[in-house]
Amino acid sequence: MNKKTLIIFVSITIIVIVISVFDIYTRILKIYYPKTYSDVVEKYAEKYEIEEEWIYSLIKAESNFKEESVSKSGAVGLMQLMEKTAKEMADEARNKR
To answer: How far apart, in Å, are the Cα atoms of 48 and each of 10, 36, 52?
Structure first.
């Protein structure tokens, strides 16, 4: 093993150990994918049989967890729904009760 390969191997090993020991992966996930609104997400994920992670990833992609987000086309909220779509979904949810 030459010196360059050894340095790379040792560096990667140190990085893996640091990530494992300090649980950096979980900390990074909590920063980029906070589980805010967990009470609502858990409730409706169970009710509609949807994976919670899917809902969180949709919220992350659409609004980055900023509930006051408004798109250029007028979509609003965490999941960036248009007003008409939101009303239709609310009516449908009420009728399923």
So the answer is: 48, 19, 10
